[in-house]
Design brief:
Layout (H helix, E strand, L loop, with lengths): L8 H18 L4 E6 L10 H6 L5 E8 L8 E2 L15 H10 L3 E7 L10 H16 L15 E5 L9 H11 L4 E7 L12 H4 L6 E5 L15 H13 L6 E7 L14 H8 L5 E7 L1 H9 L7 H12 L6 H12 L1
Parallel strand pairs: 1-2, 1-9, 2-4, 4-5, 5-6, 6-7, 7-8, 8-9
Antiparallel strand pairs: 2-3
Length: about 325
C-alpha cells in the first residue's frame, strides 16, 4: 500500500503532460521554416504537422509570385494544393493552429524564378496593397489561403532583379500595420557596402526584424565547406556588419537535402558553420529550405528524422552564450572599427 505522504499519481502525470506541451510549444526558438513552392508537399510535410513539432518559431508560406507590369500576383504554394481553384483554402485552419501555438506565419513573396518585377513605384504600391488586403488585414477577405490574418511578409527576391522599389513595398506594409513582421532572404554573396542584392535598400529602411543569407546555391562561393571556410566567413561578416543597426537579427538559411542543390551542410558539420556565425551578437538561428526536402531527408534514408530535427540540438546549443561573451563583443568591435 502506498504511503499517505506519496503524491497522487494522476495530478503528477497531468503536470508532466502540461510541462511537455509547454516545452514543445516554446522550444522553437532559433529556427524558421519555408513551406510550399512548386515541389510535392508529401504527406508528412503538412503545415500543421510542422508546427506540431515545436521546433519552429516562424513559418514562411512560399510563394506569392509572377507579378508586375499590370499582372496580379499569383500564389504558388506547392502541389499539395491548387490555389487558383480555391484548393489552398483548407490551409486556413492549419495556419490558425500554428498561430495558436505561437508560431508566426508569414507570406513569402518573390521566389527563385524571375517571373516578377517592380518596374515602378506604382507597381510597388499596388503589390503592398494586395498583400495587405488579402493576407494580412484580417478584414475577412476570402483569399487563396482562406480568411487569414498572417503575421507578416518575407521577401525572398531573385538575385538577378534590380534593387528599386522593394523598400516602397516594405514602407507601405508598415504604414498599413506597424506591428507586421518583415523578414528578408537573399543569396549569401554580398560585398560590404555595395548594393549588390535586390533588397539592399529595403533592409536599410530599418523596418526588417531579421534577414537570412542563403548559404546554398550552384553559383555561390560563399557556401559553407569544411576546411575551406574563408568565403563563408567573409560573407557572414559582410552581412552582419552592413546591416548593423538596420535589421533586428541575422540568420543563415540552409538547404535540407544533399541532392537538392550545392551547399548542403551535413548535420555532423552544421556545428562548424554555426560556430562561425555565432561570433556575432546579432546571430539568432537558422532558417531551413524547405519542409518537403526536410522530410524527404528522412524518407530517403539519410537519418531517422527530418533534417531540421537532426540539426535542432546544434542550433539550440549555438544560441547559448559563449564562455566569454567579451570575446564576441571584441570580435564585433574589430570588424566594425
Amino acid at each position: 500500500m502506498a504511503s499517505s505522504s506519496s503524491p497522487p499519481l494522476l495530478p503528477l502525470l497531468l503536470l508532466l503532460g502540461m510541462f511537455s506541451a509547454l516545452r514543445a510549444h516554446a522550444s522553437g526558438k532559433g529556427m524558421a521554416l519555408y513551406w510550399g513552392w512548386h515541389v510535392n508537399n508529401i504527406t508528412a510535410a503538412g503545415l500543421e504537422m510542422a508546427c506540431k513539432t515545436g521546433q519552429f518559431e516562424q513559418v514562411n508560406i512560399a510563394f506569392l509570385t509572377d507579378f508586375g507590369y499590370g499582372k496580379p500576383p499569383t500564389p504558388d504554394f506547392g502541389t499539395g494544393c491548387d490555389a487558383p481553384s480555391g484548393g489552398c483554402k483548407y490551409l486556413q485552419s492549419e495556419i490558425e493552429y500554428c498561430q495558436s501555438v505561437n508560431v508566426k506565419v508569414l507570406l513569402s513573396i518573390g521566389g527563385f524564378d524571375a517571373t516578377y518585377r517592380l518596374p515602378n513605384e506604382e507597381e510597388a504600391h499596388r503589390l503592398a496593397a494586395h498583400v495587405y488586403n488579402v493576407y494580412l488585414s484580417g478584414y475577412g477577405v476570402d483569399g487563396p489561403l482562406g480568411k487569414v490574418k498572417l503575421d507578416g511578409v518575407d521577401f525572398w527576391i531573385n538575385d538577378t532583379l534590380p534593387t528599386a522599389y522593394w523598400d516602397v513595398v516594405a514602407e507601405d506594409l508598415k504604414r498599413y500595420d506597424e506591428k507586421l513582421i518583415l523578414t528578408g532572404s537573399q543569396a549569401c554573396n554580398h560585398s560590404l557596402g555595395v548594393p549588390d542584392i535586390p533588397i539592399f535598400y529595403a533592409l536599410k529602411t530599418g523596418l526588417f526584424s531579421r534577414v537570412w543569407a542563403r548559404v546554398f546555391g550552384d553559383y555561390y562561393p560563399c557556401v559553407y565547406e569544411r576546411g575551406n571556410t574563408a568565403s563563408f566567413e567573409s560573407a557572414v561578416r559582410n552581412w552582419t556588419t552592413d546591416f548593423e543597426g538596420y535589421v533586428g537579427d541575422f540568420r543563415i538559411a540552409v538547404d535540407c537535402h544533399p541532392k537538392y542543390i550545392r551547399g548542403f551542410i551535413p548535420p555532423e558539420e552544421i556545428e562548424g558553420a554555426l560556430d562561425i556565425v555565432r561570433k556575432y551578437p546579432r546571430y539568432s538561428g537558422v532558417a531551413v529550405w524547405n519542409r518537403h526536402w526536410d522530410v524527404k531527408y528522412k524518407e530517403d534514408g539519410y537519418a531517422k528524422w527530418p533534417y531540421s530535427e537532426t540539426i535542432y540540438p546544434h542550433v539550440q546549443d549555438s544560441l547559448e552564450p559563449d564562455d566569454d561573451d567579451a570575446v564576441r563583443h571584441q570580435h564585433l568591435h574589430e570588424v566594425v572599427f
